[in-house]
């Protein structure tokens, strides 16, 4: 049987073009699937996470974050509702701790939680029709990424220039595991191609851009995963406070890298300004049009026009930054202040 879910299938550059053209798919071996079933599934998850989920209809997609009491991101969930179950698509390493946390917080809610990863695999695509989605309750399980536009109740911290997410037609499809073996070889693309496209779209992923200190504002994640006017949830005080003050501690940038040394940074490589460390690379890739690019988290006060360098394999690689989250972002930058009651947005 053909090996699937690998880095590439010969040419990541060609595979990027095939993905964008809707002619290829990427099996994602590092994803897990959790289902929530029961009449309280939407209201209960809505009450403990950052996005408004009440009112989702069969076939609707959403994205939500589970924050700690200080507003730091603990889990990111891609959500699909089918009228019977709410499906959570998560990175594999999140599945067990997320399932355990949800189980502890269920209390009297009428919700059944189950890990369904053994039954369903996750496949990435930029168009429909390349593989048959699973539909255990007669609704195709396709998560359409909301990153393409600012969701209701959200806010874009990126600068006013055209956001590359506008052209991001990404989706994740749940399929029966047996269906993977029937994917024609010519339809397969690797994870390197997908990663390059994700980085170019400024699309954060918890497994790469996130760490133990991350808050949504730093990653421009209020664009798709946070509702600024919903009821209380854990970590909401920090969400409101940082949004009102407009000063996230760090900010995400896209780096255009000098490719003359043929060095591509890796996660954790230091970002320098005048030989001082001011941040770190979160992910990097070779894009089919932009060349070598990377996402990085830098200190908020790093000048937006500063010439940076990435220290990789002992070599200082020149890096020009493209602003995603400005140094001042939020109410002080023209965003309406959020109503506050007892220190928490209501």
Summarize the SSE layout with pairings.
Layout: H1 12-20, E1 26-28, E2 31-37, H2 41-48, E3 61-67, E4 73-81, E5 85-91, H3 92-105, E6 112-115, E7 120-125, E8 142-144, E9 171-176, H4 191-200, H5 206-209, H6 236-245, E10 250-257, E11 270-273, E12 276-287, E13 291-299, E14 307-312, E15 315-323
Antiparallel strand pairs: 1-7, 2-5, 2-6, 3-4, 4-5, 7-9, 8-9, 10-13, 10-15, 11-12, 11-14, 12-13, 14-15
Helix pairs in contact: 1-4
Q: What is the typical, i.e. mean, pLDDT?
A: 91
Summarize the amount of helix as a percent range: 10-25%
Span between termini: 54 Å
How does the overall form come out from the CA principal axes?
A: globular
* Strand order within the widest beta sheet: 10-13-12-11-14-15
SS element count, helices: 6
- Tell me the radius of gyration: 20 Å
The count of β-strands is 15
Q: pLDDT below 50 for ≥5 consecutive residues: which ranges?
A: 331-346
Structural class: alpha+beta
**Approximately what portion of the residues adopt beta-strand conformation?**
25-35%
Main β-sheet: number of strands, strand sense, barrel status?
Answer: 6 strands, antiparallel, barrel
**Element pattern in H and E:** HEEHEEEHEEEEHHHEEEEEE
Description:
The chain is of the alpha+beta class and 346 residues long. The protein has 6 helices and 15 strands. It has helices at residues 12-20, 41-48, 92-105, 191-200, 206-209, 236-245; strands at 26-28, 31-37, 61-67, 73-81, 85-91, 112-115, 120-125, 142-144, 171-176, 250-257, 270-273, 276-287, 291-299, 307-312, 315-323. The strands form 3 sheets. The chain has a 6-stranded antiparallel beta barrel with strand order 10-13-12-11-14-15. The longest helix has 14 residues, at 92-105. It starts with 11 loop residues before the first helix and ends in a 23-residue tail after the last strand.
């Amino acid at each position: 049987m053909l090996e699937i879910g690998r880095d590439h299938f010969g040419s990541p550059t060609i595979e990027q073009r095939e993905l964008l053209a809707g002619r290829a798919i990427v099996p994602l071996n590092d994803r897990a699937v959790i289902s929530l079933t029961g009449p309280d599934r939407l209201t209960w998850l809505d009450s403990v996470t950052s996005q408004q989920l009440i009112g989702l209809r069969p076939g609707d997609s959403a994205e939500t974050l589970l924050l700690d009491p200080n507003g730091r991101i603990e889990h990111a969930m891609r959500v699909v509702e089918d009228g019977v179950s709410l499906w959570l698509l998560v990175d594999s390493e999140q599945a067990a701790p997320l399932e355990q946390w949800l189980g502890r917080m269920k209390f009297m809610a009428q919700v059944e939680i189950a890990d369904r990863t053994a039954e369903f695999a996750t496949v990435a695509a930029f168009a429909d029709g390349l593989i048959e989605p699973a539909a255990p309750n007669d609704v195709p399980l396709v998560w359409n990424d909301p990153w393409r536009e600012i969701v209701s109740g959200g806010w874009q911290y990126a600068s006013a220039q055209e956001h590359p997410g506008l052209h991001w037609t990404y989706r994740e499809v749940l399929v029966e595991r047996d269906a993977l073996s029937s994917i024609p070889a010519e339809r397969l693309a690797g994870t390197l191609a997908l990663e390059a496209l994700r980085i170019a779209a400024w699309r954060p992923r918890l497994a790469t851009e996130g760490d133990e200190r991350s808050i949504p504002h730093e990653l421009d994640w209020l664009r798709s995963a946070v509702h600024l006017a919903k009821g209380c949830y854990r970590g909401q005080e920090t969400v409101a406070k940082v949004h009102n003050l407009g000063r996230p501690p760090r900010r995400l940038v896209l780096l255009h890298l000098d490719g003359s040394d043929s060095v591509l940074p890796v996660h954790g490589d230091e970002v320098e300004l005048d030989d001082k460390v001011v941040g770190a690379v979160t992910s990097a890739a070779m894009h089919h049009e932009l060349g070598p690019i990377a996402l990085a988290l830098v200190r908020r006060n790093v000048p937006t026009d500063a010439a940076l360098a990435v220290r990789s394999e002992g070599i200082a690689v020149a890096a020009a930054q493209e602003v995603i989250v400005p140094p001042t972002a939020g109410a002080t930058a023209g965003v309406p202040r959020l109503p506050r009651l007892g220190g928490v947005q209501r």
